[in-house]
Amino acid sequence: MYKGYVRLWYEPQIWEPHGLQIEDSLLDLGKRRLKNMDEAGIDMQVLSLSTPGCEQFGATRGMALSRKTNEELHKAINKYPDRFIGLAALAPQSPEEAARELERAVKELGLKGAKINSHIRGSYLDEKKYWPIFEAAESLDVPVFLHPNTPNPSTIKPYLDHGFALAGPAWGFGAEAALQAMRLIYSGIFDKYPGLKIILGHLGEGLIFWMYRLDFSFKRPWMEEEVRPRIKRMPSEYIRDNFYVNTSGMHSVPAFLSVYLELGADHMMFAADYPYENSGEAARFIEEIPASNIDKEKIQHSVAEKLFKLA
Amino acid sequence: MYKGYVRLWYEPQIWEPHGLQIEDSLLDLGKRRLKNMDEAGIDMQVLSLSTPGCEQFGATRGMALSRKTNEELHKAINKYPDRFIGLAALAPQSPEEAARELERAVKELGLKGAKINSHIRGSYLDEKKYWPIFEAAESLDVPVFLHPNTPNPSTIKPYLDHGFALAGPAWGFGAEAALQAMRLIYSGIFDKYPGLKIILGHLGEGLIFWMYRLDFSFKRPWMEEEVRPRIKRMPSEYIRDNFYVNTSGMHSVPAFLSVYLELGADHMMFAADYPYENSGEAARFIEEIPASNIDKEKIQHSVAEKLFKLA
Fold it and tell me: Are A224 and B161 inside 8 Å of each other by CB?
């Protein structure tokens, strides 16, 4: 087991009884969840296995859990098809099998894409061995939600010296997911699979704030190729074309505005981050953002409907 | 020598001839620099030793270089006292001596604070052994500019797999400086030295974008103290009170707005990042930001005049 891989990302005894309440909410795929959605005015929810997911196990166990999860998702969605869609859980430890499972999940189980929880037992998603998964996603024309996890074991040490919180949602989650996204961009994967779509949570994990500076090495012709990767476009261009961000857990108007002005509503989606955040607060946040009603509707549902092919 | 510590943060042969042109500009403390300021409409400039600074050497050599640098700064400033002020170079490897050097630099050489280039040969600034430096800064009522460097050697590996650029200004610089800042906050150093003032570059190294979420563990009473550090206030409160950010290298209106709306003009300062960025472009950026003239003046000069006690 890697650090951060103990029952969600925390140790259960620390967060009792609230950790268990969250777990109960996660496991309920019916009335409790629908009631929360109704109260917040949320019509549809995207279901997915919570972090750290199947990525934490050995390949065989991970794959078995991935298949079982996707079948459970399929059942829950079939029960309330007008309220739920789902993203497949994968076990990228077995890349070829994971690619086939994504295909099965989309074609046979009706799931709308995949969710991957950042690093795979310490290795990065841009490693070539994982590319069959992204090839399958592009070929199926479904997005991959790159969800955070605690930092890669090789970098986590400085996040743990002052209490575990710095490794979690307050900082390490975003640091890890953003580094993964940057590595994907630098790896050239979007040149190989130009139709690949990546979803980032938390208003883009900080990537959009840095958009101007991400191109630093690419706007300076005197920075030769030994320094920067051999990719065809500038990082910001891949982000604009290949990335979608959601608003999970970031009910901040200043942060929202920076992403909205940089990326535009066509690549932004509402997310409640249920049950970790308050769904009603999340929904009200979008109601009150300084944006046109057309853009609010895009963020609230139209972009997701198009991306997940619901219309 | 640590990675990233080879002549500035790059290897000279890679960036010829432009690396050498930058070096020439860095070393000139007279006409060439003043001409650039005049052309951009910049009245005063804060001089400091460029990253990675004295932090890369052994304690004895580092201290000697620190003293020499500060004396050189003093001379250059005395030559053009209405155009230059300076921040002391320190060698925190020798914390007590560095604290005394800061005192000498402020009291005897007229420097206005200190600049520290992130990690000290791989160790973090929040380690208790470095606190005498921050104690001195608080006692002298001068700010410490926490400047980025390439990531700490213990975390740098994943930044180096696709060309060196990810470890530099395009990503790693900010990741490292922000982690340092978060560790300072989590360490409780601002409870011990509540008057301590930290300057961050690049519009706050991403910290301000995350402001809402930085308090994640602190707004949830059920997250007990085993998870989060025992500090008196929420991270965002320390940032609001103890941090100043400058606009170096971030000529982005969306990013600017998020920081401006979150932090306010009273803690923001113009920076040109000479000679790494174009001073004229940096100055024009502030002229054109969507903010009141009063706030522009604060950002252009008033906040710095107050912080560095120039008025």
Answer: no
Question: Left, alpha or beta for B273 (phi > 0: left; psi -120 to 50: alpha)?
Answer: left
Output the average pLDDT for chain A.
92
Task: Note whether B166 and A186 are within 8 A (CB).
Answer: yes
Asked if residue A91 lies in contact with residue A59, where contact means CB atoms within 8 angstroms, the answer is: yes
Q: Is the ipTM of this complex over 0.90?
A: yes
- How many CB pairs lie under 8 A apart between chains A and B? 208
**What's the rounded Cα separation, in Å, for the pair A45 and B248?**
41
Per-residue exposure over A273-288, b if at least 16 CB sit within 10 Å of its own CB, e if not: bbbbbbbeebbebbee
**C-beta atoms of B169 and A213 within 8 A:** yes
| Angle between helices B253-263 and A253-263 in degrees, nearest 10 | 170
Write the Ramachandran bin of A133: left for phi over 0, alpha for psi from -120 to 50, otherwise beta.
alpha
pLDDT (0 to 100) of residue A2: 45
| A273 part of the active site | yes
Closest CA to A105 of A115, A117, A95: A115
One CATH from 3.10.129.10, 1.20.1250.20, 3.40.120.10, 3.20.20.140 for B18-307: 3.20.20.140
pLDDT digits (tens, 9 = 90+) for B228-263: 788 999 999 999 999 999 999 999 999 999 999 999
Please give the CATH topology (third level) of the domain spanning A12-307.
TIM Barrel (3.20.20)
Q: DSSP letter at A287?
A: H
- B128, with CB counted inside 10 A (0-12, 13-18, 19+), is exposed
Please list every residue in chain B whose beta carbon sits closer than 8 Å to the beta carbon of residue A252.
211-213, 262
Is B180 in contact with B119 (CB distance < 8 Å)?
A: yes
In chain B, whose CA is at the least distance from the CA of A153?
B155
* Nearest residue to B183 via CA among B203, B207, B167: B207
- Report the interhelical angle of A95-107 vs A59-79 (nearest 10°): 10
Q: Is A311 touching B (CB cutoff 8 A)? A: no
Instruction: Quote the distance between the C-alpha of residue A186 and its chain's center.
Output: 19
pTM of the model: 0.95
Q: Provide the angle, in degrees to the nearest 10, between the axes of the packed helices A31-40 and A279-288.
A: 30
Give the angle A251-A253-A257 at the CA atoms, nearest 5°: 120
Share of chain B above pLDDT 70, in %: 92
Please give the Cα distance from B55 to B258 (Å, whole number): 32
pLDDT beneath 50: ranges in chain B = 1-6, 9
Distance in angstroms between the alpha carbons of the first and the last residue of chain B: 41
Among B10, B166, B262, select the one facing A182 at the smallest CB separation: B166
* Residue A103: its H or E element: helix A95-107
CA B216, B218, B220, B223 torsion: positive or negative?
positive
Phi and psi torsions of B2, nearest 5°: -90, 160
Instruction: Show the tokens assigned to B273.
Output: 């990042």
Whose CA is closest to A204, among A263, A156, A152?
A: A263
C-beta separation of B244 from B268 below 8 A: yes
* Closest residue in B to A9 (Cα–Cα): B227
Cα–Cα distances (Å) from B242 to B111, B145, B214, B225, in that order, read 20, 12, 15, 23
